[in-house]
Amino acid sequence: MNNEYWDPKIELMNRKSLEELQLKKLKWQVKRCYDNSVFYREKLKRARVTPDSIRSLDDVEKIPFVYKGELREEQRKSGVNRYIVTTHRLVEAYPTSGTTGEPVFNFWTEMDREYIIDVTARTLWSMGLRNDDVVHNAFKYELWAVGMSIHRAVQKIGGFVLPVGDGKLLRQIELLIKMAPTAIFSTPTLAMKIGAKLKEFGFSASDLTLEFGGFGGEPGASIPNTRKKIEKMLGIEAYDYYGLMEIAPTFASECKEKAGIHWSEDHHLVEIVDPKTNERVGEGEKGVLVITHLSKEATPMLRYWTGDIAKLEYEKCSCGRTHARSPNGIIGRTDDMIIVQGISFYPSEIEEILRSFPEIGTEYKIRVVDHEKCVVYVEPDPEYLSKEKDVEHLEQKISEYLASYFGVPFEVRFIAKTR
Fold this sequence. Notes:
The protein has about 425 residues and is α/β, with parallel strands linked by helices. It contains twelve helices and 19 strands. Helices cover about 35% and strands about 25% of the residues.
């Protein structure tokens, strides 16, 4: 590696060579899924697809999508054995969050673990992490691979890692002050809670040694005004970070240019499809993110329907990296879309506006009333409310702004009017 890139041969690969590599690995993956997995063989046969059907990258469209619900049902009926592809020894397993149903287990072989650690190291390196950094790792460790992946990748780079996890705020702040970390990794929500608690205790960003951080697990760092809020509260450069347990916990991130998350296309074939027609959309158009594993051994996904909304651009980033990027990161989720009076938008679009008002704190809640009106409950900034008396005027001001922007009725309510 050189000082700028973790793996320059891969990260700077021209598009033709990259696509040749992808096709070679795609053929390998489809054949092994067909040969070794009852689940995939049945699925591919129903679609009249065989390994010989894959002759170009475009042929991936012949493969039917894989949905989380069918993996959950498969696991419930037959266990995981029907969609485990490898005969190699399994070394780890991690469940999905299970927030919308029974968790789906994903297994790793030793090779899977090594490629995930290496890809994670690539993402951390692109944000600026080096072997002299001290990392405050505030991602959860327990049965959630994000914390462990970052932990191992920091060690691979040669840095020092504090396995803090997502525990109590007081403990977070104590370690941030005493251990003098230079980088922090967490969810955007936790980052803002830490910032608010620091302020409450009389600390400021200047009391910290932090220089940058990566934030994922939920929308936030991809939303410009939320990013600015995190950067101001912690005195850092904030980068968007993406992972998905069904694919890999930490495999796409922004570089220092903050021009969108870079996809690790040597390991993952990324598509954007129209959620209504299931057809691919054009470059720069919004659609559902669909990902195919090119390297995963144990439980590979062929055309996994993530439900996340994103765009894809192939123009080389100004950082020099050639892999495709998603400007603005993950825009939303298909199941999070808000529809009011026939107009659709995503919570992240509301958050971008809310974060532009310094009077609003870190928490908010959105409620749609009979598809006719959107009510937003916001947490006030205590410092602002101690000075500002005309809260009703502020509620009206933000309500009118949102209504004008989206073209539908909005009502903003502060959940507390005094500290």
